[in-house]
Design brief:
The complex is a heterotrimer of chains A (289), B (766) and C (157). With 289 residues, chain A is an alpha+beta fold. Chain A contains eleven helices and 14 strands. In chain A, strands 4-5-10-6-7 form a five-stranded antiparallel β-sheet. Chain A is globular and about 55 Å long. By secondary structure, chain C is of the alpha+beta class. Classes of the chains: A alpha+beta (289), B alpha+beta (766), C alpha+beta (157).
Chain lengths: 289, 766, 157
């Protein structure tokens, strides 16, 4: 048994939002629960009220609508891993699920939960940042879109208002000559948290110069970040190993990691550089396929 | 893949040596087996322990009033409810803290309540006042002159050159190392350090105690030693032995970590106070804060070699970080001083070991206590020696290792030594000389030594039911090896000619099974197996006597085969065992056999040992030899074990599936210690990774398929020539992997675990 | 609400119960229904000892609220044998010696059954990946893999 909280099941997002609104920031949504339940056990932020949104229909999908891919907030990570739609255009999202915890956890963990729990090491975050995705956010009052690049604000903190719920993620379908990747480092092959994670998006022009580059770093700053100065090194240039090395060195300086029981600050920086190099190469390889 | 080097003239056995399933397997795969955590009794209360909030200091005041007044709380206890007794190898450990606090795992109070939730709430309501003292986390700091004394009531050994916070000191010396170093062609020096690692049994500690009206107590516990814990409970709570019934439940792993009292005393006292059954289970967090793991040992080694690659002298100085209590650290010290030298013929040896207190979890027994640490140091060092001389590491070992007739460092004459055979076997199994290696790949070999705890008593009864079926009854228990559930019935079947499905085994209840020391020391097959064998032979002899009357012949003319007793050269002349068993009801009585086994320790040269050494020899020494092939990612430091080959000198494999299981499982548990496991402490003596996310044990993705084999023929005194099997395989992996990393990269890493950050730092500092 | 009436089918048997909304699914199975075959080792989803099938999918029952499993079907280790006959995966575990202390075995049996139902002939790599969320401290995984492969061969024949 866990510590004291009240419980309610929402029949709709609207209803869920009003529960959240009534409890002014002291209520939490419950979907997969893989982070939530552990937090409660260790008395981290015990909510007054848990709002179960698993019964709400129509929030679990991966579909293409015109030039956009839409992923419902309750889509779990196994579904993401097995999606052939994502495999062809958004492999970085699948990359993020492969080393993620375990099959048992992936069957419950949702993309909405991973993004909204907003840990600095959230594996789904860096790919979402480089893929220019946005979150469609609803409350009983209104609806709005938040670009993922404006979503995170700190460790376990984001810019959702206390009554807002992410309904779906919207990702523009990338052009043909582009590739995206996500790599992370941890000691074990499973059941482990990333010491550092890097996502990369590359788009090439007809001459194979970099038309657009996006790099995102996870677990090495208070929130998942974009390595903007690193991206600028790549833009407009032809990719050579010297350029990639220079970019990775810049990325190391943009990382602002801490030391904790999982890793020292210095090692996180080192790994960031290594992963940036490798993620760029993998994205490049995928550009050419 | 199983390769077996057989001795060509091994007898043909009917049951032992065969691949047969275990007796408990059905219960386990159906979920019917009841483990400690599963036990539930009517009216049972749930208990919880309050552990210390400080790592070093004094207990000033405990106020339990608020906890006692919480609705649903039935009892709250502190040290006042226990006799004023200290326990442990150095009499340094109270059950519940009275005055001094030694680490954050010290028990301050305990509650029993109607539900676990109420018990947890009650714990949070107990007010404790502490006075803090500086926290010592490293033996290097503990021994400093200006450090506080952790155990004010324990005198350091008078023969120890270092006194401060030292609880034991061991020496082994022979020859003259200083002279020998002068004569050596090559000198090699090294320093190595291991990490604190936890047994990681999947089932946490769990016990239920029930006191009845006559002040007798029954305890069910997930344990490796019902008799050992009964004895400890009797000593510490003052309850006579015959008033304690200790029952071993199915036990979800132990590896040495379930050999001493943890939750049981609180369960018993709470049950005495409330008159109801009380159950306490530890959470995973509490396991990594308050139990008894494998502790860190630091080794300084220096060897003198001649040009031909002979080790002429070895000097070793080691420091065992005992933690808050001496516990099993005294045993680890005794092993460090000896095994830290390595299983090699060396004429001049000077080895010293200090066992030092710190304010962390205290040393417990963990699969070959002291040996993995000693092997990491001495096998990495020996590899370094081989490199310096320019000889292949496997050949270097073959030229120096003990053989039959060699003398150990303490002057014990060694027999039945399968070390050379095992080295040759691993050479074959791994195809050592032809292992193809890509860039950043390397191979490493290491030896692990352990022995069989034959001096710990094992007992068994064998009784024949009236239909000819058999019950084996023994105090031996099983924390997973299958030595009881698998091996013992096979031995009874072998000696009685009764098929395995007609044999049942009942284990580990102090009320109605004969004494057996513990599921530890790799001793169950060795000692209890011999007891079962003897007891079965007694029954067999009684069967022969009865049959000889039927068949009108001498007992000597008879043999036992597949459920009948028959005349050897006239097998049609036979009588079924079931007939004899049925008859025994009216004439002669039940066919019963019983035996107890204790082995004496071999002789050794007492002049070689000093300090706290009280024993100097090993029963049935045995050797695991393993090869690791690794790939090192130089950029990240990640080491991938792409191949792992393990063999072992087992004498005779009574239960082959069980033997393989021990070798494979031990190797993987050792790979965890080699590559990823460490308990990390913060400055205040708090465990920083008290959970299974950050205390990293290998998953199926982290290890390869272990290629295992075993070597038979170097017999010891276990049944059919067997030796202890369970512990040796955990010993070699840290050194095997370390040596392979060196081979791949030229970098020698001196600190465990060889996790990516450690390996990466070693690259950076080159 | 602090309590809720729930209906959960376990191994084909319906159970109706009013439970606290704080109750974990693991505790519902072990304490309320007294089926102790499903074990626990960490209570944080890091060891897999508590693995069950929830509506046919392997999950860690230690981090799911019981009320969230209302109107669900659960399979635990006790439900693997049918009419007194062990399932093939159970038989293979026995034959290959894949259980030592046996504490992780219920979780592994559930995860393996799911794997073999979906992928009748998995490779060793696929088995390791699929079962990576189940920790074993005793066997080193060798004989568990042997058992899964053995079961995959015998199931198809």
């Amino acid at each position: 048994m866990l510590y004291d909280f009240d419980y309610v099941e929402a029949k709709s997002l609207d209803q869920a939002s009003s529960f959240l609104s009534k409890h002014k920031g002291k209520a939490k949504l419950y979907a997969g629960g893989t982070d939530q339940v552990v937090d409660i056990r260790f008395k981290n932020q015990i909510p007054e009220l848990i709002v179960n949104i698993n019964k709400i229909k129509g929030l679990n999908y991966i579909k293409q609508e015109n030039n956009f891919l839409k992923i419902g907030t309750l889509t779990n990570l196994t579904q993401i891993q097995q999606s052939s739609l994502l495999q062809s255009t958004f492999p970085s999202l699948i990359d993020a699920t492969v080393p993620f915890a375990s099959f048992q956890i992936r069957n419950r963990a949702t993309i909405g939960g991973n993004i909204c729990h907003s840990t600095p090491s959230a594996d789904m975050a860096p790919p979402m940042l480089v893929l220019n995705s946005s979150a469609k956010v609803v409350s009983s009052e209104k609806e709005r879109n938040i670009p993922l690049n404006e979503f995170f604000s700190g460790p376990n903190q984001n810019n959702l208002k206390s009554d807002e719920i992410v309904k779906e993620f919207i990702l523009p379908i990338p052009p043909k000559k582009s590739g995206n990747s996500y790599l992370r480092h941890s000691s074990r092959g499973a059941l482990d948290i990333a010491v550092a994670g890097v996502a990369c998006y590359l788009e090439l022009d007809d001459k194979d110069n970099v038309k657009d580059a996006k790099i995102s770093l996870g677990a090495v700053a208070p929130k998942p970040i974009r390595a903007l100065r690193s991206e600028n090194i790549l833009k407009g240039k032809k990719l050579t190993s010297e350029l990639i090395l220079k970019t990775s060195t810049m990325a190391v300086s943009e990382a602002k990691p801490i030391s904790d029981v999982r890793s020292s600050l210095e090692y996180r920086k080192k790994i960031t550089g290594v992963l940036v190099k490798r993620a760029i190469n993998l994205a490049l390889e995928r550009c050419n396929n | 893949m199983l390769l077996k080097k057989g001795v060509l003239n091994l007898p043909k056995y009917s049951a032992v040596g065969k691949r047969l399933p275990r007796k408990d397997a059905f219960n386990v795969v159906t979920g019917a087996a009841l483990y400690g955590v599963d036990i539930s009794l009517p009216g049972m209360l749930y208990g919880k322990i309050l552990f210390s909030k400080i790592a070093h200091g004094r207990l000033k005041k405990i106020n339990t009033k608020k906890a006692e007044n919480l609705s649903g709380v039935r009892s709250v206890i502190t040290h006042k409810d226990f006799p004023d007794v200290v326990t442990g190898t150095k009499n340094d450990k109270p059950l519940f803290s009275r005055n001094k606090i030694y680490h954050k795992g010290d028990r301050i109070a305990a509650v029993a309540a109607d539900s676990l939730e109420i018990a947890e709430k009650a714990i949070s309501l107990i007010d404790v006042e502490y006075e803090t003292l500086p926290v010592l986390l490293d033996p290097d700091d503990s021994i400093k002159d200006d450090s506080p004394v952790i155990h004010e009531d324990v005198n350091p050994p008078e023969w120890s050159p270092i006194k401060k916070n030292v609880c034991a000191f061991y020496t082994i010396k022979k020859g003259n190392v200083d002279e020998a170093f002068k004569k050596s062609d090559i000198i090699v020096e090294d320093f190595f350090e291991t990490s604190m690692v936890h047994q990681g049994y999947l089932e946490p500690h769990a016990a239920v105690a029930q006191v009845n009206n006559l002040d007798e107590v029954t305890v069910w516990s997930s344990t490796q030693t019902p008799f050992g814990l009964r004895s400890e409970l009797s000593d510490s709570l003052g309850i006579p032995l015959n008033k304690i019934r200790f029952i071993h439940t199915y036990t979800g792993g132990g590896f040495g970590g379930k050999l001493s009292l943890t939750v049981e005393p609180a369960c018993v006292v709470l049950s005495q106070k409330t008159g109801r059954a009380v159950k306490i289970t530890l959470t995973r967090e509490e396991e990594l804060i308050s139990t008894n793991p494998r502790v860190t040992v630091k080794f300084h080694l220096k060897s003198g070699l001649n040009k031909k690659g002979k080790i002429i002298a070895r000097k070793v100085k080691s420091f065992v970080d005992a933690g808050a209590y001496a516990g099993s650290a005294t045993g680890v010290g005794r092993m460090s001083v000896d095994l830290g030298v390595g299983p090699y013929n060396i004429e001049n040896v000077d080895s010293e070991c200090y066992v030092v207190y710190t304010n962390k979890m205290s040393c417990g027994a963990f699969r070959a206590p002291g040996s993995p640490q000693a092997s990491f140091a001495s096998e990495s060092h020996t590899d370094h020696c081989a490199k310096k001389v320019g000889i292949d590491p496997l050949d270097f070992r073959l030229n120096n290792v003990w053989v039959n007739g060699s003398y150990s460092h303490t002057g014990q004459k060694l027999e039945g030594i399968g070390l050379k055979d095992s080295l040759e076997q691993i050479e074959k199994d791994s195809d050592w000389n032809n292992i193809s290696l890509a860039k950043n790949q390397g191979k490493g070999v290491a030896i692990g030594m352990w022995m069989t705890a034959g001096s710990l008593e094992g007992g068994a009864w064998v009784k024949m039911n009236e239909d000819g079926s058999v019950s084996v009854v023994t105090g031996a228990c099983d924390s997973g090896s299958g030595a009881t559930w698998g091996g013992l019935p096979m031995i009874a079947s072998e000696e009685l000619g009764v098929p395995l499905d007609k044999i049942s085994i009942y284990i580990a209840d102090t009320a109605n099974t004969p004494f057996d020391a513990a599921a530890d020391g790799s001793r169950t097959t060795y000692c209890t197996g011999n007891a079962v064998k003897d007891a079965a032979i007694q029954v067999r002899n009684k069967l022969f006597e009865s049959a000889s009357k039927h068949l009108d012949c001498n007992s000597n003319d008879l043999e036992i085969y597949d459920g009948v007793i028959r005349i050897k050269n006239n097998i049609d002349n036979n009588v079924p065992i079931s007939v004899l068993a049925a008859e025994s009801k009216t004439a002669g009585g039940q066919f019963l056999g019983g035996a107890s086994y204790v082995f004496p320790s071999p002789e050794y040269d007492e002049s070689t040992v000093g300090g706290d050494m009280t024993s100097g020899s090993f029963i049935a020494p045995t050797f695991a030899v393993q090869v690791a092939v690794v790939e090192v990612d130089e950029e990240t430091g990640l080491v991938k074990t792409i191949r792992y080959v393990a063999t072992q000198d087992v004498g005779f494999a009574v239960n082959p599936i069980g033997v393989e299981g021990q070798i494979e499982g031990g190797a993987v548990q050792g790979l965890g210690q080699a590559l990823m496991e460490k308990v990390v402490y913060g400055e205040e003596g708090e465990t920083l990774n008290p959970n299974l996310l950050d205390y990293k044990m290998p998953t199926a993705l982290d290890v390869p398929y272990i290629e295992s084999s075993y070597v038979e023929g170097n017999f010891a005194d276990g049944p059919y020539g067997s030796k202890g099997v369970g512990e040796p395989p955990i010993v070699p992996p840290p050194a095997a992997v370390g040596n392979a990393i060196y081979h791949a990269t030229g970098i020698r890493i001196r600190k465990l675990p060889l996790d990516p950050e450690t390996v990466s730092s070693a690259f950076m500092s080159k | 609400m602090k309590n809720k009436k729930i209906n959960i089918t376990i191994n084909g048997q319906k159970h109706e119960s009013t439970v606290s909304t704080k109750l974990l699914l693991l505790d519902f199975i072990r304490e309320n229904i007294n089926m102790t075959g499903t074990k626990w080792g960490c209570l944080t989803g890091d060891c897999g000892a508590c693995t069950i099938l929830l509506n046919g999918i392997p999950v860690n029952s230690c981090i799911i609220l019981a009320v969230d499993a209302d109107d669900s079907e659960i399979l635990t280790v006790e439900g693997l044998a049918k009419d007194g006959q062990l399932s093939q995966i159970q038989k293979s575990f026995i034959e290959k010696g894949a259980a030592q202390c046996g504490y992780c075995t219920p979780g592994f049996l559930i995860s393996s059954k799911y794997l073999l139902d979906k992928k009748p002939n998995p490779t060793e790599d696929e088995i390791r990946y699929q079962l990576a969320g189940n920790l074993c401290r005793c066997t080193g995984y060798n004989k568990i893999i042997d058992a899964v492969i053995d079961a995959s061969k015998k199931r198809s024949s």
